[in-house]
Protein backbone atom coordinates (compact mmCIF):
# COMPACT_ATOMS: atom_id res chain seq x y z
CA UNK A 1 0.00 0.00 0.00
CA UNK A 2 1.12 3.54 -0.73
CA UNK A 3 2.20 6.00 1.92
CA UNK A 4 -0.25 8.49 3.40
CA UNK A 5 0.56 12.05 4.48
CA UNK A 6 -1.87 13.77 6.84
CA UNK A 7 -2.55 17.44 7.29
CA UNK A 8 -5.51 19.39 8.68
CA UNK A 9 -8.72 20.02 6.81
CA UNK A 10 -10.56 23.35 6.70
CA UNK A 11 -8.80 26.52 5.58
CA UNK A 12 -5.35 25.80 4.22
CA UNK A 13 -2.20 27.90 4.22
CA UNK A 14 0.94 28.05 2.15
CA UNK A 15 3.13 26.21 4.65
CA UNK A 16 1.28 22.88 4.70
CA UNK A 17 0.45 23.20 0.99
CA UNK A 18 4.13 23.54 0.11
CA UNK A 19 5.16 21.01 2.77
CA UNK A 20 2.86 18.38 1.26
CA UNK A 21 4.22 19.08 -2.20
CA UNK A 22 7.84 18.85 -1.06
CA UNK A 23 7.48 15.66 0.96
CA UNK A 24 6.00 13.89 -2.06
CA UNK A 25 9.24 14.67 -3.96
CA UNK A 26 11.17 12.37 -1.62
CA UNK A 27 11.86 8.71 -2.25
CA UNK A 28 10.12 7.77 0.98
CA UNK A 29 6.86 9.58 0.21
CA UNK A 30 6.82 9.62 -3.58
CA UNK A 31 3.22 9.91 -4.83
CA UNK A 32 1.89 9.58 -1.27
CA UNK A 33 -1.82 10.21 -0.77
CA UNK A 34 -2.71 13.42 1.06
CA UNK A 35 -5.35 12.95 3.75
CA UNK A 36 -6.86 16.12 5.25
CA UNK A 37 -8.34 15.66 8.74
CA UNK A 38 -8.15 16.93 12.31
CA UNK A 39 -9.29 13.60 13.76
CA UNK A 40 -6.35 12.43 15.86
CA UNK A 41 -7.34 8.78 15.37
CA UNK A 42 -7.00 9.30 11.61
CA UNK A 43 -3.75 11.24 11.97
CA UNK A 44 -2.24 8.48 14.11
CA UNK A 45 -2.52 6.11 11.13
CA UNK A 46 -0.60 8.42 8.80
CA UNK A 47 3.00 7.79 7.70
CA UNK A 48 3.70 11.53 8.02
CA UNK A 49 1.72 14.41 9.53
CA UNK A 50 2.21 18.09 8.68
CA UNK A 51 0.96 21.24 10.44
CA UNK A 52 -1.34 19.46 12.87
CA UNK A 53 -1.13 17.00 15.74
CA UNK A 54 1.04 19.00 18.12
CA UNK A 55 4.20 16.93 17.58
CA UNK A 56 7.56 17.64 16.03
CA UNK A 57 9.47 14.38 15.68
CA UNK A 58 11.43 13.79 12.48
CA UNK A 59 12.03 10.16 13.48
CA UNK A 60 8.29 9.51 12.99
CA UNK A 61 7.81 12.21 10.33
CA UNK A 62 5.66 14.46 12.52
CA UNK A 63 6.07 18.10 11.50
CA UNK A 64 3.83 20.41 13.50
CA UNK A 65 4.98 23.80 14.82
CA UNK A 66 1.98 25.01 16.85
CA UNK A 67 2.73 23.31 20.15
CA UNK A 68 3.89 25.23 23.23
CA UNK A 69 7.65 25.52 23.50
CA UNK A 70 8.34 24.95 19.81
CA UNK A 71 11.17 27.29 18.71
CA UNK A 72 12.89 25.22 16.03
CA UNK A 73 14.87 27.22 13.45
CA UNK A 74 16.59 26.14 10.25
CA UNK A 75 20.13 26.62 11.56
CA UNK A 76 23.04 27.71 9.36
CA UNK A 77 22.71 31.22 10.80
CA UNK A 78 18.93 31.51 10.24
CA UNK A 79 16.80 32.26 13.29
CA UNK A 80 13.25 32.46 11.87
CA UNK A 81 10.90 30.01 13.58
CA UNK A 82 10.00 27.19 11.21
CA UNK A 83 6.55 26.35 9.86
CA UNK A 84 5.64 22.90 8.57
CA UNK A 85 7.15 23.83 5.19
CA UNK A 86 10.42 24.81 6.81
CA UNK A 87 10.47 21.60 8.85
CA UNK A 88 10.01 19.40 5.79
CA UNK A 89 12.64 21.40 3.93
CA UNK A 90 15.08 21.20 6.86
CA UNK A 91 14.94 17.40 6.88
CA UNK A 92 14.32 16.57 3.23
CA UNK A 93 15.52 19.64 1.32
CA UNK A 94 18.98 18.29 0.52
CA UNK A 95 17.50 15.08 -0.88
CA UNK A 96 15.06 17.08 -3.01
CA UNK A 97 17.79 19.43 -4.28
CA UNK A 98 20.15 16.53 -5.05
CA UNK A 99 17.43 14.79 -7.04
CA UNK A 100 16.57 17.93 -9.03
CA UNK A 101 20.27 18.67 -9.74
CA UNK A 102 21.17 15.07 -10.47
CA UNK A 103 23.98 15.16 -7.92
CA UNK A 104 24.96 13.29 -4.80
CA UNK A 105 23.40 14.72 -1.63
CA UNK A 106 26.85 15.51 -0.21
CA UNK A 107 27.95 17.54 -3.26
CA UNK A 108 28.98 21.10 -2.38
CA UNK A 109 26.59 22.58 -4.98
CA UNK A 110 23.66 20.77 -3.35
CA UNK A 111 24.48 22.43 -0.03
CA UNK A 112 24.82 25.86 -1.69
CA UNK A 113 21.46 25.60 -3.45
CA UNK A 114 19.86 24.11 -0.30
CA UNK A 115 20.78 27.21 1.71
CA UNK A 116 20.03 29.67 -1.10
CA UNK A 117 16.51 28.30 -1.71
CA UNK A 118 15.75 28.45 2.00
CA UNK A 119 16.94 32.05 2.21
CA UNK A 120 15.13 33.26 -0.90
CA UNK A 121 11.98 31.13 -0.92
CA UNK A 122 11.15 29.02 2.12
CA UNK A 123 12.09 31.38 4.97
CA UNK A 124 9.47 33.98 4.04
CA UNK A 125 6.77 31.29 4.13
CA UNK A 126 7.96 30.33 7.63
CA UNK A 127 7.93 33.96 8.70
CA UNK A 128 4.48 34.76 7.31
CA UNK A 129 2.88 31.63 8.76
CA UNK A 130 4.36 32.32 12.19
CA UNK A 131 3.36 36.00 12.13
CA UNK A 132 6.93 37.32 12.16
CA UNK A 133 7.34 40.87 10.86
CA UNK A 134 9.84 41.31 8.06
CA UNK A 135 11.15 44.52 9.65
CA UNK A 136 11.85 45.49 13.25
CA UNK A 137 9.36 48.33 13.56
CA UNK A 138 6.10 49.09 15.33
CA UNK A 139 4.90 51.30 12.47
CA UNK A 140 2.18 50.00 10.15
CA UNK A 141 3.25 49.11 6.60
CA UNK A 142 2.99 51.90 4.04
CA UNK A 143 1.06 49.63 1.68
CA UNK A 144 -0.49 46.16 1.54
CA UNK A 145 1.17 43.31 -0.33
CA UNK A 146 -1.32 40.60 -1.24
CA UNK A 147 0.65 39.37 -4.26
CA UNK A 148 3.12 37.06 -2.49
CA UNK A 149 2.81 33.28 -2.66
CA UNK A 150 1.25 32.87 0.80
CA UNK A 151 -1.46 35.39 -0.08
CA UNK A 152 -2.16 33.78 -3.45
CA UNK A 153 -2.44 30.34 -1.89
CA UNK A 154 -4.78 31.73 0.78
CA UNK A 155 -7.11 33.14 -1.87
CA UNK A 156 -7.59 29.65 -3.31
CA UNK A 157 -9.62 28.62 -0.25
CA UNK A 158 -13.30 28.32 -1.20
CA UNK A 159 -15.04 31.65 -0.74
CA UNK A 160 -17.78 31.88 1.89
CA UNK A 161 -20.34 32.09 -0.93
CA UNK A 162 -18.93 29.02 -2.72
CA UNK A 163 -19.23 25.30 -2.13
CA UNK A 164 -17.32 24.51 1.07
CA UNK A 165 -17.72 20.76 1.01
CA UNK A 166 -14.69 18.59 1.87
CA UNK A 167 -14.46 17.63 -1.81
CA UNK A 168 -14.32 21.28 -2.87
CA UNK A 169 -11.71 22.07 -0.21
CA UNK A 170 -9.54 19.13 -1.27
CA UNK A 171 -9.75 20.18 -4.93
CA UNK A 172 -8.66 23.72 -4.03
CA UNK A 173 -5.87 22.34 -1.80
CA UNK A 174 -4.42 20.27 -4.64
CA UNK A 175 -4.63 23.26 -6.98
CA UNK A 176 -2.69 25.27 -4.39
CA UNK A 177 -0.12 22.46 -4.13
CA UNK A 178 0.45 22.72 -7.86
CA UNK A 179 1.00 26.48 -7.75
CA UNK A 180 3.28 26.48 -4.70
CA UNK A 181 5.18 23.45 -5.92
CA UNK A 182 5.72 24.91 -9.37
CA UNK A 183 7.25 28.08 -7.90
CA UNK A 184 9.41 26.00 -5.53
CA UNK A 185 10.80 23.97 -8.44
CA UNK A 186 11.33 27.15 -10.47
CA UNK A 187 13.40 28.52 -7.58
CA UNK A 188 15.58 25.40 -7.54
CA UNK A 189 15.96 25.61 -11.33
CA UNK A 190 17.08 29.24 -11.13
CA UNK A 191 19.71 28.52 -8.51
CA UNK A 192 20.97 25.45 -10.37
CA UNK A 193 21.04 26.89 -13.89
CA UNK A 194 21.76 30.59 -13.29
CA UNK A 195 22.92 31.31 -9.75
CA UNK A 196 25.53 28.54 -9.44
CA UNK A 197 27.22 29.25 -12.81
CA UNK A 198 27.34 32.95 -11.91
CA UNK A 199 29.01 32.12 -8.60
CA UNK A 200 31.65 30.13 -10.47
CA UNK A 201 32.33 33.04 -12.83
CA UNK A 202 32.70 35.48 -9.92
CA UNK A 203 34.99 33.09 -8.02
CA UNK A 204 37.22 32.69 -11.07
CA UNK A 205 37.26 36.45 -11.63
CA UNK A 206 38.29 37.04 -8.02
CA UNK A 207 41.10 34.50 -8.38
CA UNK A 208 42.50 36.32 -11.43
CA UNK A 209 41.84 39.87 -10.19
CA UNK A 210 45.52 40.83 -9.99
CA UNK A 211 45.95 40.30 -13.72
CA UNK A 212 44.25 43.64 -14.32
CA UNK A 213 45.75 45.53 -11.41
CA UNK A 214 48.37 44.42 -8.92
CA UNK A 215 46.44 45.84 -5.95
CA UNK A 216 43.71 43.25 -6.38
CA UNK A 217 41.07 45.94 -5.91
CA UNK A 218 39.80 45.79 -9.50
CA UNK A 219 37.95 42.68 -10.70
CA UNK A 220 37.22 41.93 -14.36
CA UNK A 221 34.22 39.70 -14.98
CA UNK A 222 35.19 37.04 -17.53
CA UNK A 223 31.55 37.00 -18.61
CA UNK A 224 28.74 39.25 -17.43
CA UNK A 225 26.49 37.67 -14.80
CA UNK A 226 24.72 38.68 -11.57
CA UNK A 227 27.74 39.32 -9.36
CA UNK A 228 26.95 41.57 -6.40
CA UNK A 229 25.67 39.04 -3.86
CA UNK A 230 28.25 36.47 -4.90
CA UNK A 231 31.09 38.96 -4.55
CA UNK A 232 30.04 39.93 -1.03
CA UNK A 233 29.70 36.31 0.07
CA UNK A 234 32.95 35.16 -1.54
CA UNK A 235 34.91 38.09 -0.11
CA UNK A 236 33.71 37.08 3.35
CA UNK A 237 34.38 33.37 2.79
CA UNK A 238 37.86 34.06 1.43
CA UNK A 239 38.66 36.74 4.04
CA UNK A 240 39.69 38.94 1.14
CA UNK A 241 41.97 41.90 1.87
CA UNK A 242 41.85 44.48 0.47
CA UNK A 243 38.23 44.40 -0.63
CA UNK A 244 37.42 44.91 -4.29
CA UNK A 245 36.47 48.48 -5.17
CA UNK A 246 35.61 48.26 -8.89
CA UNK A 247 34.12 45.60 -11.17
CA UNK A 248 34.63 45.78 -14.94
CA UNK A 249 32.34 44.03 -17.42
CA UNK A 250 31.26 44.33 -21.04
CA UNK A 251 27.75 45.58 -21.78
CA UNK A 252 26.35 43.00 -24.22
CA UNK A 253 24.01 45.48 -25.85
CA UNK A 254 26.33 48.41 -26.47
CA UNK A 255 29.54 46.34 -26.60
CA UNK A 256 31.12 49.02 -24.43
CA UNK A 257 32.78 48.45 -21.07
CA UNK A 258 31.45 49.46 -17.68
CA UNK A 259 33.36 50.20 -14.52
CA UNK A 260 31.10 49.86 -11.49
CA UNK A 261 31.95 50.83 -7.94
CA UNK A 262 31.17 48.04 -5.48
CA UNK A 263 28.49 48.92 -2.92
CA UNK A 264 29.35 48.83 0.78
CA UNK A 265 26.86 45.94 1.08
CA UNK A 266 24.37 44.20 -1.24
CA UNK A 267 21.21 46.27 -1.55
CA UNK A 268 22.92 49.49 -0.39
CA UNK A 269 23.37 52.51 -2.65
CA UNK A 270 26.58 53.81 -1.06
CA UNK A 271 29.77 52.75 -2.85
CA UNK A 272 33.02 51.67 -1.23
CA UNK A 273 34.90 54.06 -3.49
CA UNK A 274 32.75 56.09 -5.93
CA UNK A 275 34.29 57.32 -9.16
CA UNK A 276 35.91 60.79 -8.79
CA UNK A 277 33.69 63.81 -8.16
CA UNK A 278 35.32 65.70 -11.03
CA UNK A 279 34.13 63.04 -13.49
CA UNK A 280 30.53 62.77 -12.34
CA UNK A 281 27.84 63.91 -14.75
CA UNK A 282 30.30 64.35 -17.63
CA UNK A 283 30.08 62.55 -20.98
CA UNK A 284 32.12 61.69 -24.04
CA UNK A 285 34.86 64.19 -25.04
CA UNK A 286 34.35 66.39 -21.99
CA UNK A 287 34.82 63.40 -19.69
CA UNK A 288 37.77 62.03 -21.69
CA UNK A 289 39.50 65.40 -21.40
CA UNK A 290 38.83 65.72 -17.66
CA UNK A 291 40.02 62.18 -16.96
CA UNK A 292 42.84 62.26 -19.54
CA UNK A 293 41.60 58.86 -20.78
CA UNK A 294 40.48 58.18 -24.34
CA UNK A 295 37.08 56.71 -25.14
CA UNK A 296 35.18 57.74 -22.00
CA UNK A 297 31.40 57.58 -22.41
CA UNK A 298 29.86 58.68 -19.10
CA UNK A 299 30.06 58.71 -15.32
CA UNK A 300 26.85 58.68 -13.30
CA UNK A 301 26.12 61.68 -11.06
CA UNK A 302 26.49 59.49 -7.97
CA UNK A 303 29.79 58.03 -9.15
CA UNK A 304 28.61 54.44 -8.83
CA UNK A 305 29.17 53.57 -12.51
CA UNK A 306 30.94 54.79 -15.62
CA UNK A 307 31.59 53.61 -19.14
CA UNK A 308 34.28 53.51 -21.79
CA UNK A 309 34.34 52.34 -25.40
CA UNK A 310 37.12 49.84 -24.72
CA UNK A 311 38.30 47.44 -22.04
CA UNK A 312 41.63 49.24 -21.71
CA UNK A 313 39.84 52.55 -21.32
CA UNK A 314 37.57 51.21 -18.58
CA UNK A 315 40.55 49.64 -16.80
CA UNK A 316 42.40 52.95 -16.97
CA UNK A 317 39.39 54.70 -15.43
CA UNK A 318 39.30 52.20 -12.56
CA UNK A 319 43.07 52.40 -11.97
CA UNK A 320 43.11 56.19 -11.98
CA UNK A 321 40.04 56.38 -9.70
CA UNK A 322 41.75 53.99 -7.31
CA UNK A 323 44.92 56.05 -7.13
CA UNK A 324 43.69 59.64 -7.07
CA UNK A 325 41.22 59.15 -4.22
CA UNK A 326 41.80 58.34 -0.56
CA UNK A 327 40.63 54.90 0.55
CA UNK A 328 37.17 55.10 2.09
CA UNK A 329 37.20 51.76 3.90
Average pLDDT, rounded to a whole number, is: 95
For the largest sheet, list the strands in their spatial order: 2-1-3-5-4
Structural Rg: 25 Å
Which runs of at least 5 residues are low in confidence (pLDDT < 50)?
none
Strand fraction band?
A: 5-15%
Contiguous helical run count:
9
Secondary structure tally: strands: 12
Helix share of residues? Answer: 40-55%
The profile of the biggest β sheet is: 5 strands, mixed
Cα end-to-end separation: 64 Å
The structure class reads: alpha/beta
Quaternary form: single chain
Structure description:
By secondary structure, the chain is of the alpha/beta class. 41% of the residues lie in helices and 13% in strands. The strands form 3 sheets. The protein has a 5-stranded mixed β-sheet with strand order 2-1-3-5-4. Strand 4 and strand 5 form a beta hairpin. Helix 1 packs parallel to helix 3, helix 1 crosses helix 6 and helix 4 packs across helix 6. The longest helix has 42 residues. The radius of gyration is 25 Å and the shape is elongated.
Question: What is the compact description of this entry?
Answer:
This protein is α/β, with parallel strands linked by helices. Helices cover 41% and strands 13% of the residues. It is built from 9 helices and 12 strands.
Amino acid sequence: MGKKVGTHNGSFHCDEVLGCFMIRLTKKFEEAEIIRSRDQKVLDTMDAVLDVGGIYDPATDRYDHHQRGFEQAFGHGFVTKLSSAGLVYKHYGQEIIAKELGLDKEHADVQRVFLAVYKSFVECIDGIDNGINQFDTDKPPRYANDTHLSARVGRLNPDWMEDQSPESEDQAFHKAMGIAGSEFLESICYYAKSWLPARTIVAESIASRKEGDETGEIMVLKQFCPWKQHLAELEEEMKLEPLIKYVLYEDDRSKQWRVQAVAIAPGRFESRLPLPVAWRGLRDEELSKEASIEGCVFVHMSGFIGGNKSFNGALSMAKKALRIQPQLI
